[in-house]
């Protein structure tokens, strides 16, 4: 965390700034932003970019026009235009980086969809906002009970109140289309507020709720990942991963986003490898690829009919045999190339285990006592005076 007030206190206990999502340093929130242009001044005669990025609950962000020329900085609580009424959020980014983000998200500054900032939030605005936030958990439980009673195949994952408490947005996931007309009537009667239902995907649900991934860290989608790129099983095949749905799927039930992180590196490394479906033709027989190791740059081949005997070749040797096959030049056998590879591996010095320090069992066997130690012990015994004397 970037917030200094969230550091550990006595006996390693976390202190926490206890700002309930309104941390002024913007280091205690999801999808936090670092303004690396904050210490740079604009050239003379250049007007500052009159737009800000405002974050709402669970990382929801929108761009707003600062038409009142308010002095806004990161962490300020502002009241923004909404339909109807107004909403309350935190300024997550201001200055020239907002221009870059709007260009990246393809949001035009003169678009009618870009609303404006009304004012800095007063204490009354913050009190109403906090009271509405405190009602969300209880409403979520009651809303799920009503949906179950109506036998609707949907899951209500989150509720978000508007800043002035005039509207509540219910986020839900469903496999099929849901007829929630009766549900909205009961919600409006039960909660006495304006209701809006918004369907989200499973990945968006995981990013809003957050959690801990199989790597032991917080989910990427809830901390820093803002765009969801499509992930296919071919990404796992290129990385030589077993197609096990339980290991490849994340908490959202879809393929993990991290499968795409190193995919480009694997694809670049695979360019030097021959295709796995290419057979090697030798005088001894036809060999078929069984396995590849991208890190070591080697492949294992087996002759047809001798599937238990694998022969290790480098990618360069395999490409050389394929080139000879295309030229119809005779190739003796894979064993000839395998012997050359073994000789090269034996010549390589082993710098990792020179003195045997990498062995985990080096202390298991006790050292044998040498003859010199035994002779010294015998001399000491002979030199001691006898008790009988």
TrEMBL record:
InterPro entries: PSP1-like (IPR047767), PSP1_C (IPR007557). It comes from Autumnicola patrickiae. NCBIfam families: RicT_YaaT_fam (NF041131). Signal peptide: none annotated. Residues 115-200 form the PSP1 C-terminal domain. Pfam families: PSP1. Coiled coil: none annotated. It comes from the Bacteria. Residues 350-389 are annotated as: Disordered. This is Regulatory iron-sulfur-containing complex subunit RicT. PANTHER family: PROTEIN PSP1 (PTHR43830). Residues 370-389 have a biased composition (Basic residues).
């Amino acid at each position: 965390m970037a917030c200094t007030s969230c550091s550990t206190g006595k006996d390693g206990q976390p202190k926490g700034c206890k700002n309930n999502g309104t941390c002024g340093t913007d280091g205690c929130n999801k999808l936090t932003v670092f303004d690396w242009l904050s210490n740079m001044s604009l050239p003379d005669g250049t007007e500052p970019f009159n737009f800000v990025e405002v974050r709402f609950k669970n990382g929801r962000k929108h761009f707003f026009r600062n038409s009142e020329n308010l002095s806004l900085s990161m962490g300020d609580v502002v009241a923004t235009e909404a339909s109807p009424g107004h909403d309350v959020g935190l300024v997550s980014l201001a200055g020239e980086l907002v221009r870059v983000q709007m260009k990246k998200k393809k949001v035009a500054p003169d678009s009618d969809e870009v609303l404006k900032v009304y004012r800095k939030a007063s204490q009354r605005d913050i009190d109403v906002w906090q009271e509405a936030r405190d009602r969300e958990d209880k409403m979520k439980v009651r809303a799920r009970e009503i949906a179950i009673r109506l036998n609707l195949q949907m899951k209500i994952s989150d509720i978000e109140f508007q800043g002035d408490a005039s509207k509540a947005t219910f986020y839900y996931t469903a496999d099929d289309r849901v007829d929630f007309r009766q549900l909205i009537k009961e919600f409006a009667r039960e909660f006495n507020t304006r209701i809006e239902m918004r369907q989200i995907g499973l990945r968006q649900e995981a990013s809003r709720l957050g959690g801990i991934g199989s790597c032991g860290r917080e989910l990427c989608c809830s901390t820093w990942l803002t765009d969801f790129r499509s992930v296919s099983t071919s990404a796992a095949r290129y990385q030589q991963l077993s197609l096990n749905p339980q290991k490849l799927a994340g908490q959202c039930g879809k393929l993990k986003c991290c499968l795409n992180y190193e995919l480009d590196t694997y694809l670049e490394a695979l360019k030097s490898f021959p295709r796995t479906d290419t057979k090697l033709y030798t005088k001894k027989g036809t060999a078929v690829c069984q396995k590849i190791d991208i890190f070591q740059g080697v492949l294992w081949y087996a002759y047809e009919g001798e599937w238990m005997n694998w022969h290790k070749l480098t990618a360069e040797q395999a490409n050389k045999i394929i080139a000879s096959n295309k030229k119809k030049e005779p190739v003796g056998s894979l064993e000839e190339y395998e012997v050359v590879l073994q000789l090269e591996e034996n010549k390589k010095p082993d710098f990792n285990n020179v003195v045997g320090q990498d062995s985990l069992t080096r202390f298991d066997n006790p050292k044998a006592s040498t003859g010199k130690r035994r002779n010294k012990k015998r001399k000491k015994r002979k030199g001691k005076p006898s008790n009988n004397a």
